[in-house]
């Protein structure tokens, strides 16, 4: 038989009826219907959030690519037209001719 010097020896916890009060309390709390329903609500909310995030990402992709394909070329063309009109007005003012009529 070996002897240990110093310290306190704790009782063996291998017995089935020897559970601590904290573990009994936590197991009784974790098995209540309220906890089960709370876990189910959190799981459902996570599922809905994941679906919403996925569909929002798809919508953002569609909107972004549509903008790049349809709107950006239109903006570039309108800017070119405005620069050309400005250049014509500058040339007309340098030559002394009346400026061309602008859009009404």
Automatic annotation (TrEMBL):
Segments for region (Disordered): 1-22
Residue stretches spanning the membrane: 59-76
GO cellular component: mitochondrial outer membrane
Membrane-topology annotation of the record: Single-pass membrane protein
Gene Ontology terms describing biological process: intracellular protein transport
Location in the cell: Mitochondrion outer membrane
Major subcellular site: mitochondrion
Keyword line: Membrane, Mitochondrion, Mitochondrion outer membrane, Protein transport, Receptor, Translocation, Transmembrane, Transmembrane helix, Transport
Record family assignment: Belongs to the Tom22 family.
Protein name in the entry: Mitochondrial import receptor subunit TOM22 homolog
Organism name: Anisodus tanguticus
Taxon lineage: Eukaryota, Viridiplantae, Streptophyta, Embryophyta, Tracheophyta
């Amino acid at each position: 038989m070996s002897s240990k010097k110093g310290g306190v020896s704790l009782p063996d916890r291998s017995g089935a009826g020897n559970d601590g009060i904290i573990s009994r309390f936590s197991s009784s709390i974790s098995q209540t219907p309220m906890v089960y329903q709370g876990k189910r609500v959190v799981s459902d909310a996570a599922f809905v959030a994941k679906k919403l995030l996925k569909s929002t990402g798809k919508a953002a992709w569609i909107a972004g690519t549509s903008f790049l394909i349809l709107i950006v070329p239109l903006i570039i063309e309108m800017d070119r037209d405005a620069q050309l009109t400005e250049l014509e007005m500058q040339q007309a003012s340098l030559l002394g001719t009346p400026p061309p009529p602008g859009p009404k």
